[in-house]
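ingest -> validate -> predict -> emit
validate: passed (alphabet ok, no gaps, 326 aa)
predict: started
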Amino acid sequence: MPRPLWTGAISFGLVTIPIKVISATEDHAIHFHQMHLSDMGRVRTRKVCDLDGKTLSQDEIGKGYEVAKGETVPVTDEELDQMPLPTAKAIEIVAFVGADTVDPVRIADSYYLAGDGQVAAKPYLLLRRALERSDRVAVAKFAWHGRERLGTLHVREEAIVLHVMHWPDEIRSPESLAPKEVELDDNEIEQAVRLTETMAADDISGFRDHYREALEELIEAKSEGRQAPGPAEGAEKESGKVMDLMAALNASVEAAKESRGKDDGDATVHTMRSRKKTPAKRTTAKRATAKKSTAEETRAKGSAAKKSHAKKAAAGETAAQKRSAS
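emit:
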């Protein structure tokens, strides 16, 4: 099990559930070091004091808040821990709401909440079953990393998951980003809806990070002294080209249908023919050639048989003439 990031409790009315917070995600991205190109020496980021120019260790660094130009108030970790917050050591559930009312934009990080010890087993299961049966999510407040945060508790398989949420005032309004009103034809809208239906999927579990895979191939090739793989065929796309919207939608629908093996009727699963197999036309041609060869061989055998029979008849006739002459 990964190392817990935080320990505390879930406060559920008068019920307290000891928990450990564990990251629900893993970072599989490939990270690079900054290097000096001439000798490939490592370039590091050092923490240096602006006043004396000294490089500082982590023990010499603390927190401070600049209240005015040139005036900073130091704040220690002990002072932060002693703040009179009910959420300082607990994830306090304050409400239950419908899952469809949670704006996905407000969701930040996700963490698993694991029961801490046998004493947490029963209340943990109680909360999980209550969330499952009510079809709601719990809204909670908690203090973490020097600030009070908002979150929601969901059930994923057999675990309770904490989704850290942004506060309402942290979400920017998209009003200024919306495009100006333009005229849309009903046929264009219907074709766009048809495209969404053609591209519909049951889940997204099959998607992979192709960029990371290509990056791993690049690093492996360079480490082995091989030539780095080139760009895939068709990777370059034209940009800035103005296309007819309806034509683009029609082409997109046809391309999606072709890639999924669907027709205009009910959705049907088709077995895709492997490119390595011989196409039907070539197979038919081979069969025709085989039949033609068989027919020619038959005719050749028949002709040879006729010639042999004629030779035998001629030989017999010559022998009869000799006996008659004698």
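The two ends are 116 Å apart (CA to CA).
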